[in-house]
C-alpha cells in the first residue's frame, strides 16, 4: 500500500496520539496495515511491533497483520518464529501468495536459493502481482550467477509491463555478465520498436555499441536518448565519453559541461574535461579543470596523477613531484604511480628516490622490462654498479635474449674489466638488435670507446 506523508496520514497521527495519551482507539485492519507498513519502511521496528500487537488484539484473525508480523520477524532475523507463523497462515489460506514470498525470503537469506525459487514459482501460480514475483525469481537466479535464467525471468516482467524499467536494466546487466553484447543490441533494438520513446533503452543500446567499439552507432543512440529527455545526465556523460573516443574533444567538453549544469559538479566530469583540453594542447585549461576535480574530491588519486603528468610534460618538475607524492599518499599500491615518481626523480637527479620507486614497483609485482631497466640505470647513475649488475642478471632470467638487458650487462662487465664476459654479452646483444648498441654509448661512454668494443661492433656491421 502506498504511504502518505506523516503529516497527511490521519490514522498514523491518531495512532501516535493514542501512544502519548495511553488512550485506546479503534482502527480497521486496513488502517493498521498502513500504520505498520509506515513504521517498517522507516526502520522503526519498536513502533511497528506496538502497532502489530494492538492490531492483533483488535483484529485477531487478520491475515494481513499476521503477514506483516512475519515480515518484521524476518527483518529481525528471527527466521524460526517467522516460519512457524507462516505455516499457521498457510494452513488458513493455502493460496495466499505472500506466504510463499516470505518463505522464499527466509530461504534466500539462508542461502537456499533453489528452494526460494521453487517457493516463488508456487507464489506465481497464486498471485495477481506477476511482475513482483517474476522479479524476485530473477533476483534469486542472480544470486546463483545463473544469468540466462535470471534474464528470461526479467524478460517475462517486460512482457507483462513493457515500462518496467527496473527489469530492463536487469536484463541488460545479465547480457553484460554473459558478455553477450551483440545479443543485447538485438534485444534492445526489438524493445525500442515497441517503445521507441524510451530514453533508457536508447541509453543502454548506446552502452552496448560503446562496449563493442562501434562509436558512431553509440553516439547516435545517445543522441536519441537526450532528444527524448534533455535532462538525462547519464546519457550526456556516455555521449561525451563516446565523442572522446571519436577524438571530437570540443564536443565532448560541451557535453561534460551540460552534465555539470544539470547536476552538482562532479570530480569525474571535471577530470574528463581536463583530459580533453590536454588532448587539444590547451594545457592551462587542462590544469584548471584538474584542479577543479581535486577541489571536488581532494582524494582523487587520478586527478593528482594527471596533474603530475602535465606538469612533467611542461617541465615544471617541482610541481610534478609535489603532485605525484600526493598521488602516492592516496594509493601507494599502484605501480603506475611509482613509475611516474621514478621518472620525475630521475629528471631532478634524485637517483636514490628513483631507485626506491623502481624497487617498490617490483614489490608490487610490476615485473615489466621497463622497471628492471629503469632500476639498473638509476643504480648506475648512483655508481652502484655491482647492484645494477645483480639486478640485470636477475632480469635476464625473466627476459631471455633481450638486447636492452645484454648491452647493459656487457657494459658493466667491461667496466669491471671482465673482458671475456663483456665481449660475450656484447656479441649476443648485437645479434639480437644491432641498432641498440647506442645504449653503450649513452650509459657507458668510456666502455664504448674501448678498442675491443669498437672492433666487435664493426665486425657486426
> What is the count of β-strands?
0
Helical/strand content category: mainly alpha
Order of helices and strands: HHHHHHHHHHHHHHHHHHHHHHHHHHHH
Number of helices: 28
Mean pLDDT across residues = 91
What is the radius of gyration? 34 Å
Largest sheet: none
- The percent of residues in helical segments reads over 70%
**Percent of sequence in beta strands:** under 5%
Shape descriptor: elongated
Low-confidence stretches: 1-7
Oligomeric form: single chain
What gap, in angstroms, lies between the N and C termini? 88 Å
What does this structure look like?
This protein is 77% helix and 0% strand. With 461 residues, it is an all-alpha fold. It has a domain at 393-461. Helix 4 (63-75) runs parallel beside helix 6 and helix 8 packs antiparallel against helix 9 (147-160). The chain is elongated, with a radius of gyration of 34 Å. The chain starts with 9 loop residues before the first helix and ends with a helix. Mean pLDDT is 91; it is low at 1-7.
Give the structure's gist in a few sentences.
The chain has 461 residues and is an all-alpha fold.
Secondary-structure topology with pairs:
Elements: H1 10-21, H2 29-41, H3 45-58, H4 63-75, H5 79-92, H6 97-109, H7 113-126, H8 130-143, H9 147-160, H10 165-177, H11 181-194, H12 199-211, H13 215-228, H14 233-245, H15 249-262, H16 267-279, H17 283-296, H18 301-313, H19 317-330, H20 335-347, H21 351-363, H22 369-381, H23 385-398, H24 403-415, H25 419-432, H26 438-443, H27 445-448, H28 451-459
Task: Provide the descriptors you would attach to this structure in a database record.
461 residues, mainly alpha, elongated
Amino acid at each position: 500500500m502506498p504511504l502518505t506523508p506523516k503529516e497527511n496520514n490521519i490514522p498514523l497521527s491518531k495512532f501516535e496520539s493514542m501512544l502519548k495519551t495511553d488512550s485506546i482507539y479503534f482502527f480497521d485492519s486496513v488502517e493498521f496495515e498502513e500504520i505498520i507498513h509506515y513504521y517498517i519502511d522507516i526502520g522503526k521496528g519498536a513502533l511497528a511491533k506496538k502497532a502489530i500487537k494492538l492490531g492483533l488484539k483488535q483484529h485477531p484473525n487478520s491475515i494481513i497483520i499476521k503477514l506483516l508480523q512475519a515480515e518484521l520477524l524476518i527483518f529481525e532475523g528471527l527466521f524460526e518464529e517467522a516460519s512457524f507463523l507462516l505455516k499457521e497462515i498457510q494452513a488458513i489460506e493455502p493460496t495466499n501468495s505472500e506466504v510463499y514470498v516470505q518463505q522464499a525470503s527466509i530461504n534466500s537469506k539462508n542461502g537456499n536459493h533453489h528452494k526460494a525459487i521453487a517457493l516463488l514459482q508456487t507464489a506465481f501460480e497464486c498471485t495477481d502481482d506477476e511482475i513482483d514475483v517474476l522479479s524476485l525469481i530473477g533476483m534469486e537466479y542472480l544470486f546463483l550467477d545463473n544469468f540466462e535464467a535470471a534474464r528470461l525471468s526479467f524478460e517475462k516482467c517486460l512482457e507483462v509491463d513493457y515500462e518496467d524499467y527496473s527489469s530492463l536494466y536487469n536484463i541488460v546487466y545479465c547480457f553484460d555478465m554473459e558478455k553477450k553484447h551483440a545479443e543485447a543490441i538485438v534485444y534492445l533494438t526489438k524493445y525500442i520498436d515497441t517503445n521507441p520513446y524510451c530514453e533508457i533503452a536508447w541509453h543502454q543500446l548506446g552502452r552496448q555499441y560503446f562496449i563493442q567499439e562501434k562509436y558512431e552507432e553509440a553516439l547516435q543512440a545517445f543522441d536519441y536518448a537526450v532528444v527524448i529527455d534533455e535532462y538525462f545526465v547519464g546519457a550526456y556523460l556516455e555521449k561525451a565519453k563516446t565523442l572522446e573516443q571519436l577524438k571530437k574533444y570540443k564536443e565532448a567538453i560541451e557535453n561534460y559541461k551540460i552534465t555539470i549544469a544539470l547536476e552538482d559538479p562532479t570530480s569525474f566530469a571535471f577530470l574528463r574535461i581536463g583530459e580533453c583540453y590536454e588532448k587539444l594542447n590547451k594545457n592551462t585549461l587542462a590544469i584548471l579543470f584538474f584542479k577543479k576535480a581535486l577541489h571536488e574530491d581532494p582524494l582523487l588519486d587520478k586527478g593528482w596523477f594527471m596533474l603530475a603528468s602535465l606538469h612533467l610534460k611542461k617541465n615544471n618538475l617541482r610541481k610534478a613531484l609535489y603532485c605525484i607524492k600526493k598521488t602516492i599518499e592516496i594509493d601507494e599500491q599502484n605501480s603506475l604511480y611509482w613509475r611516474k615518481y621514478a621518472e620525475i626523480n630521475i629528471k631532478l637527479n634524485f637517483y636514490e628516490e628513483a631507485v626506491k620507486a623502481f624497487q617498490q614497483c617490483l614489490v608490487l609485482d610490476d615485473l615489466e622490462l621497463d622497471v628492471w631497466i629503469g632500476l639498473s640505470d638509476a643504480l648506475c647513475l648512483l655508481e652502484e654498479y655491482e647492484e645494477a649488475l645483480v639486478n640485470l642478471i636477475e632480469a635476464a632470467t625473466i627476459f631471455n635474449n633481450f638486447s636492452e638487458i645484454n648491452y647493459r650487462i656487457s657494459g658493466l662487465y667491461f667496466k669491471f674489466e671482465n673482458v671475456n664476459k663483456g665481449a660475450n654479452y656484447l656479441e649476443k646483444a648485437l645479434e639480437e638488435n644491432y641498432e641498440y648498441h647506442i645504449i653503450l654509448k649513452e650509459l657507458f661512454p668510456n666502455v664504448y670507446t674501448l678498442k675491443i668494443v669498437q672492433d666487435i661492433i664493426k665486425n657486426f656491421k
